[in-house]
Amino acid sequence: MTSEPDHVAGEPLVVLEDVNKHFGELHVLQNINLTINRGEVVVVIGPSGSGKSTLCRAINRLETIDDGRITVDGKDLPAEGKALAKLRADVGMVFQSFNLFAHKTILDNVTLGPIKVRKQKPAAARERAMELLRRVGIDSQASKLPAQLSGGQQQRVAIARALAMDPKVILFDEPTSALDPEMVNEVLDVMVDLAKGGMTMVVVTHEMGFARKAANRVVFMADGQIVEESDPESFFTNPKSSRAKDFLGKILSH
Predict the structure, then answer these.
(1) Which CATH architecture has domain 11-252?
(2) What DSSP character marks residue 179?
(3) R_g (Cα) of the chain, nearest Å
(4) In a 3-state reduction of DSSP, which class is residue 134?
(5) pLDDT tens digits, residue range 208-250?
(6) Other Cβ atoms closer than 10 A to 209
(7) How far is C-alpha 111 from the chain's CA centre?
(8) What parts of the chain have a pLDDT lower than 70?
(9) Where is the ABC transporter domain (predicted)?
(10) H/E stretch holding 192
(11) Which residue among 19, 69, 152, 160 has the highest number of C-beta atoms inside a 10 angstrom radius?
(12) Is 192 in contact with 213 (CB distance < 8 Å)?
């Protein structure tokens, strides 16, 4: 478990209050209350269908909510338009399936947002993009197209692309679940590095090793509810709820 940097005790950055979401009859988020502090790494785990990805996607309004309130840095999520585009610039997202532009080079994928949304000068955006591609270990691939890279490399590009916007928080929605097993660690290593650097992160994942190593807090969800939350050591060694004990018993015995 990481020792908490001083700024983890920082002020709340993302706050969800009494958030509800239905898909038809299915109540996928049930009165969710959650606060993520600046500089904190919160890992959300739980069985499939527990609402983890919906929770993650609600934070940058990829999913709308039925009621309740979500604020980022003290401001309510905007409904649409320029304000929503600005919010999405501040709230980075790394998806399961990379979502890179297939016809653009790696460098162009990383510079597009900063130039279009942040209005950076192209030369400055390219310089910063190369710095970030170096950071994630793929600067040598900058002129290639996504299809020429492995899944692990593409996901590292997606992380660099999120970082290029200088977001306040990055959401990771099962970032390693589409990868071949041998590529998982190369992505998790980059994420651990980000966590150590103080990036505020919300990570939906099945990678328990990452949760143990990098999380400040583990949030366990089941059936659309937050069942318990605690530091990783307490959660993995002494889960309080029978639901969490059952879940950990199944996954940790493999």
Answers:
(1) 3-Layer(aba) Sandwich (3.40)
(2) S
(3) 18
(4) helix
(5) 999 999 999 999 999 999 999 999 999 999 999 999 999 999 8
(6) 12
(7) 20
(8) 1-10, 253-254
(9) 14-248
(10) helix 181-196
(11) 160
(12) yes
